[in-house]
Amino acid sequence: MKFKQTWFNWKAFLFMMPSAIIFCVFLLYPLIHTIYLSFFKWNMISPNKQFVGFDNYLAIFSDPNTIKILNNSFWYIFWIVLFAVVLPYILAFILDYLVPRFIHFYKASLFVPAVLSLVVASVLFTWILNPLTGPLAIILKSFGISMPFWSNTEGWVVFVLSLMVSWKVFGYNFILLVAAISGIDRELIEAARLDNVSNSRIFFQIVLPISSATGVYVLVMAVVQALQYVFTPISVLTQGGPDNASANIIFESYRQGFVMFNTGRSAAMSVLTLLMCVCLLWVEYFFVERRVHYEN
After folding, report:
1. CA neighbor of 170 nearest in space, from 231, 221, 227, 94
2. Distances in whole angstroms, Cα of residue 107 to Cα of each of 76, 104, 120, 178
3. Of 135, 175, 210, 288, which one is least surrounded by beta carbons within 10 A?
């Protein structure tokens, strides 16, 4: 019996081997190697690496642009969470419970941007938001309002790039949230309505807690999208300008490594990005996850 149990464990191990090999080759090894490179000065061309210890990390924190880039990164997170989590949550509740007649049409139409490339979305938004000849600028001009040159204006550039990414992921998040909300027992909602409970209280005290498991998943994904997806419009449209006003920490890591060939500093910024994600997940776990309702 003991032999059979041991053989069963070996079989399970063998079945796990392909996934374990892929995990080690494409995730674990690059992580360890990135941490290793963060302690060296290297330009990716020279065969020799110069060990500098924590100098790359100290250079990052002594650079005045680092604070601006981190500030931009958190503003990206704020806007994308607002546009791609809060708004689709409210819209999913409104369309599913208050005006459900054309819900399937809304699902299909809102999901269309999710299948488009972010490069295409960036070019499309550049045309729409052109401050001189864009459709929005022409409409605003008819009301005597001039559209700002957002790509050269601090604050505006982060807001517009966040809008592009939010437009891309809005439909996917909306579908997930509609699925979660539609799974709530309708009798709870009807009972609340019979007691003359307002729609806002129904949303915050019934719908939000019961669908919070999916809501937390969408929130975590939105934070990841705010850090990763925004790289594409930054790279295509602004290159981090003006004066690093649109750069985020991932784009800066790419710029240091593949534009300036400062591989050690790029690796250090990647490690700091990982630590920032871990801190955000830690905050999410202790302040959000523990309040989540999981059915069964």
Report:
1. 221
2. 26, 5, 21, 9
3. 135
CA angle 111-117-119, nearest 5°?
Answer: 135
Q: How confident is the model over 167-219, as pLDDT tens digits?
A: 999 999 999 999 989 888 888 888 888 888 888 898 988 888 888 888 888 98
**186-195, pLDDT tens digit by residue?**
888 888 888 8
CA distances from 188 to 55, 101, 191 (A): 59, 20, 5
Q: Which of 120, 131, 217, 109 is closest to 164 using CA atoms?
A: 120
Query: What one-letter code names the amino acid at 110?
Result: L
Please state, in angstroms and rounded to a whole number, the distance separating the CA atoms of residues 244 and 65. 7
CB 269 within 8 A of CB 253: yes
What residues pair up with 50 in beta bridges, in sequence order? Answer: 41
